[in-house]
Design a protein that fits this description.
Layout lengths: L4 E5 L8 H7 L1 E4 L12 H4 L4 H9 L5 E5 L4 E8 L4 E2 L13 E15 L12 E3 L3 H12 L21 H10 L5 E4 L3 E6 L5 E7 L7 H9 L2
Parallel strand pairs: 1-3
Antiparallel strand pairs: 1-7, 2-6, 3-4, 4-6, 5-6, 8-9, 9-10
Length: 223
């Protein structure tokens, strides 16, 4: 028996992150830069983000997820497979901060399904309960239709939190010279201070430039 059905956004077409959900077995929402969800912080940090609390507290393992790609379109059906988690490795997903997470088992549809009406509402939030009969009927029939092995398949591995530091650190230590190290995946740049035990000291994301990035650029210019 289905406990609840939820829709979760896969992002706009111009910067979709739906494939990240499917590839890593997660459901993610943002904004996440404020930190992990807690009731104590709700009034200050999440006062305008009721969907964050809903995602963190109301979803339950076994609930059904519809991966929404439009007002009335979905690309996958899934099952919630964990309690709420805050995963730093999703701080930059195509420029989105999506650290609020649930593990999920997904089944990608052969082609996107479009409902006959705006079953998620005219302006759906990033996560909300689905109560429209057409969407509920679709989810119930899909879960009963073969193949159903995806509902119990092992979850895929999560990505590493950051680009690896060990190789660059080993190279610098072999030189025997105190040097800072910058590790990057081409978009994210993090600087580690050689004279401080390679502690992280500066960070920049080229897709989401913020004021702290100026510190990294300034450090890079020092002789």
């Amino acid at each position: 028996m289905i406990r609840a059905i939820w829709q979760v956004s896969g992002g706009p077409a111009s910067r979709s992150y739906a494939d990240v959900f499917l590839n890593h077995g997660v459901a993610l929402i943002g904004p996440g830069d404020a930190g992990a969800w807690s009731r104590e912080r709700y009034a200050h940090d999440f006062s305008l983000q009721g969907f964050v609390g809903r995602f963190a507290e109301e979803l339950a393992t076994g609930d059904v997820l519809l991966l929404r790609t439009g007002v009335s379109t979905i690309s996958a059906v899934g099952l919630v497979a964990s309690d709420y988690r805050y995963l730093e490795q999703f701080d930059d997903v195509n420029g989105w901060d999506l650290q609020h997470a649930r593990r999920a088992r997904w089944c990608r549809l052969a082609q996107e399904h479009t409902f006959s009406a705006q079953v998620f509402g005219a302006s759906p939030t990033r996560c909300s309960r689905v109560l429209q009969e057409e969407a509920i009927d679709f989810a119930e029939r899909f879960l009963k239709s073969p193949p159903t092995h995806w509902q119990t398949t092992p979850l895929p591995e999560l990505p590493a939190e950051e680009p690896p530091l060990d190789q660059a650190r080993g190279y610098v230590e072999a030189l025997g010279l105190p040097r800072d190290v910058i590790v990057t995946d081409g978009i994210r740049y993090r600087m580690y201070a050689g004279e401080r035990g390679f502690a992280p000291v500066a960070y920049a994301n080229l897709a989401r430039l913020k004021q702290p990035a100026a510190d990294l650029f300034a450090r890079m210019q020092r002789p």
